[in-house]
Write a structure and sequence with these properties.
Strand order of the largest sheet: 6-5-4-3-2-1-7-8-9
CATH class: Alpha Beta
Number of helices: 11
Largest sheet: 9 strands, mixed
């Protein structure tokens, strides 16, 4: 399989593993490793990138985040950024965003704030006192700075699945976007392998409420999101994907140490960007090709691996939407085997 740099459109880029949260489903905050990737290395990224998720750890804890984003933007001029944050260090986030807005247009920036439940639940999951209030203040500050593309991101586990629709309602009330993920494991990214979901019936019931709520709107963007959300519960129940996996062919994950993976939960890296003069040179190695080939068989379903699949199969997505929205009897609850 020939991998080409100009086929890559999506990237999740963790610019630091330093984190100020203490989440129950993630051990990144315990990470003790080398200094993060030098800013100059980001100049090697593919010029075809259009969707770049700046992540961490807590990415705003990296003092030169503005310079990192400018370097990526110079390398990939069409890139639009989603900056993922836990939203706890509000004053610091404000300072860093002001620096970022000096070098990247606000029209190219969206903010994704991780909120895993209402007040008590968010504190239980993230272990930060008054974390929910800090999240609300961060969203307010982002809007004050003129950033209106804001998403509340909810990670679902057995402990908070009953608040999924509460968070969806909150996002609608606040006028933000809403995205959801299910717990995953990764020994190199989340640095935990013991996450599991046992309450599958609760997951199916709550996710199907969400899917039907999205389909009940007249917003095509939400219809596509319903397809993605249906894909999550389909994966959890069947360990299969609704669409093929293009991670490692059209999308990748770059960790703070320079290692490139097909996705953040992929077990083997494709190579280290520091060892090559260009991204294409990395892709030309047997290691990169083997990792990408193996990734085709991986069933996980997250935004970072689903987006390129959805974009690559528009007719399948549109067909599902038409049947599910306009032929209501066709949308059945998935069977728990």
């Amino acid at each position: 399989m020939k991998l080409r740099a100009n086929n890559f459109t999506d990237a999740v880029i963790a610019i630091t593993y330093v984190c100020n949260s203490r989440c129950v489903m993630c051990n990144i905050w315990q990470y003790k490793g080398p200094a993060p990737l030098d800013v100059t290395e980001y100049a090697k990224l593919p010029k075809t990138l259009t969707n770049v998720n700046i992540s961490g750890g807590e990415c705003f804890l990296r003092s030169d985040i503005a310079n990192v984003m400018k370097t990526i933007k110079d390398a990939a001029p069409k890139a639009k950024f989603k900056i993922s944050t836990n939203g706890f260090a509000t004053a610091l986030i404000k300072k860093r965003l002001e620096e970022i807005l000096e070098v990247v247009s606000k029209k190219d920036i969206a903010i994704v704030v991780s909120i895993d439940g209402l007040e008590e639940m968010q504190q239980q999951v993230r272990n930060i006192p008054d974390g929910f209030k800090k999240n609300m203040e961060t969203i307010r500050i982002c809007r004050e700075l003129g950033i209106n593309d804001i998403t509340i991101a909810f990670t679902a586990g057995d402990y908070n699945i009953h608040q999924l629709m509460d968070m969806y309602a909150l996002a609608n009330k606040m006028g933000t976007e809403f995205t959801v993920a299910a717990l995953h494991n990764s020994d190199h990214y989340f640095q935990i392998t013991t996450n599991k979901i046992d309450h599958l019936k609760d997951f199916r019931d709550q996710f199907m409420k969400l899917v039907r709520a999205e389909l009940s709107t007249w917003n095509p963007k939400r219809w596509v999101r319903a397809f993605f959300e249906y894909g999550i519960i389909y994966y959890l129940l069947n360990r299969k994907r609704l669409l093929p996996n293009y991670a490692g062919q059209k999308a990748f994950f770059l960790d703070p140490n320079g290692f490139v993976y097909p996705a953040d939960v992929s077990p083997k890296p494709m190579g280290n960007i520091k060892d090559f003069n260009s991204f294409q040179d990395l892709l030309d190695t047997p290691e990169a090709q083997q990792a990408a080939e193996k990734e085709k068989q991986s069933p996980h379903w997250m935004v970072c691996t689903a987006r390129t699949a959805i974009q690559s199969h528009p007719f399948k997505v549109i067909s599902w939407i038409l049947k599910s929205k306009f032929i209501t009897s066709s949308l059945k609850d998935p069977v728990i085997e």
